[in-house]
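Predict the 3D structure for this chain.
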Amino acid sequence: MRKDTAAPADDATQTPVAHTWEILLRLLPMTLSVAAMVIMLKDSQTSDYGSLSYSDVGAFRYLVHASGVCAGYSLLSAVAAAVPRPSSLSTAWTFFILDQLLTYVVLAAGAISTELMYLAYNGDASITWSKACGSFGDFCRKATAATTITFVVTLCYAGLSLISSYRLFSKYDAPVACSNKEIDFSTFQS
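Done. Predicted structure below.
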């Protein structure tokens, strides 16, 4: 059962300090995502074996795009959270869904980049994939830094997801125990 959606219980008890911390937690992934994006955008190296840039690798292009989307969403959600207005159920659902979505988008970007970095550092002899980081060490170090920052962004979004899910699901009453113990099963004739 839904409680009154005009004035949720958690908005009345939220202190200004908690509200400030939430806004800062929404801004932190923006700065980290921009940092990861800038590191990756400037990541290119030329060696005796050729040149390598982030744009040559699909996983790194996805990381740059995901970081850009996360930075934009973080800024917009921080502004939306900072504007004083009564919370509604639709606002709580919007924050919940978008926080969850961005958590998985940035987690996927980090996971894909980590897999690629593993192959770049270790290679794969079964498919004759050599270790690329021996020839492109600077490129690999910058890509590792961007991937690490991406996982910190994932932790920030996981925290935001917990906050938004608490806000949303605290608007519902606990389930009521059913006193009817009979269960009607339909039988099908064969």
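Residues 2 and 172 are 5 Å apart (CA to CA).
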